[in-house]
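It would be a great kindness if you could assist me with a short task in structural biology. I am sending you one protein, given as its amino acid sequence and as whole-number tokens for its backbone shapes. I would ask you to consider whether the tokens describe a fold that such a sequence might reasonably adopt. The full record is reproduced below for your convenience.
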Amino acid sequence: MSDPIEAGARAAAQRLTSSHGPDLATDVEVALHTRGATARPGQYLDPISLGSLIVSIASLAWTVYSDLKKETPAPQREVVARHVRVRLGQGDSAQPALSPADQDRFIDITVEETLGAAGGTGSGEG
């Protein structure tokens, strides 16, 4: 199976490019290439990079999904997204300047695409 974090981050970037510019896909590729250098999921490589944010959300979504799957066979996407929101809110790293609505959109799309890449649970619409 391909890496759901990479696939989800790339798909989310493609969906968000129309509202955040074509460089977003490149930013995600850079963040994916350097993601091994992060200290932990949810910690951003560059506090102003939306690409890093997407990769962080995808990594965190996959971690949350894997953890929840130990308790329930099919964790709902909304539950995973809620856990991601809470964990991102607890992070000590600076987040890119996004409105709450934009941050929610980034989380929803990235969680959907990451889970979809893992097993067809995302819709791919947006």
User: Anything to note?
Assistant: The chain is about 65% helix and 0% strand. The CA atoms of residues 65 and 71 lie 10 Å apart. The two ends are 24 Å apart (CA to CA).
